[in-house]
Amino acid sequence: MASGVTPPLRAVLFDWGDTLFHSPDAAAVIVSYAREHGVPVSRPDATALWDELWTAGKTPEEIAKGRDLSMEAHRRVWTDLFGRADRVAPGLSRVLYEKVMDPNAWLPFADTGPVLRALHERGLRIGVVSNVPAELRTVFAKHGLDRYVDAFTLSYEVGVQKPDPAIFIAAADALRVRPEETLMVGDHPVDAGAERVGMRVFILPEEFEGDVRGLNAVLTLVN
């Protein structure tokens, strides 16, 4: 291959959370729990509280705590952060963790299945690479999506988190492709760490409509 020629894409790697799947309705959990404990909380206030917590959880400082390397670290780091919610109702931090952070409770975006199926039908290899402390294969199987995923590369299994280049190298190896033949799709700056190993990267827009994440844009990138 001549120098400077970009090789064709043979594989697409996807982040999991906020890219292919979304969390349960955290604001509803907050409103319900607070009401049960005699604390009136409006839906807008609950949404604002959750947005505050979720945004804080995506900062480099929180990610650097290694929460996605084990379930113990995950529970400890997230419940500590969610402790801010206990000002609304004592114990809310525990309930948020149990009801919102369980991967089995997360749901695929409306465009996840169609886009994964379209990529699969085009013959591209598909991988999921995620900072997560628990198994995802059964989560995908629950929604009939495991058939489209050739390999899962999960931080707790490989012992490193994004943006560490090692996790992206491991993901490419699992798909039996070279990094330069791979597109990484995610929603967070840690996913751009894939550029350091020669992958192409597409970061989804922060804003999207309803339950449609905007994954169709990936199909145009692999043409």
Taking the alpha carbons of the first and last residues, their distance comes to: 20 Å
- Strand percent estimate: 5-15%
Structural class: alpha/beta
Q: Stretches where pLDDT falls below 50 for ≥5 residues?
A: none
- Largest β sheet strand count, sense and barrel closure: 5 strands, parallel
Task: Please provide the ordered H/E string of secondary-structure elements.
Answer: EEHHHHHEHEHEHHEEH
Named at the architecture level, the CATH assignment of the largest domain is 3-Layer(aba) Sandwich
Total domain modules: 2
> What is the number of beta strands?
7
Label the overall shape. globular
Q: In the CATH hierarchy, what is the superfamily of the largest domain? A: HAD superfamily/HAD-like
CATH class category label of the largest domain: Alpha Beta
> CATH fold name of the largest domain, please?
Rossmann fold
Oligomeric composition of the shown chains: single chain
Strand order of the largest sheet: 5-4-1-6-7
Q: Count of DSSP helices?
A: 10
Q: Report the mean per-residue pLDDT as an integer.
A: 95
Rounded to the nearest angstrom, the radius of gyration is 18 Å
Tell me the helix content: 25-40%
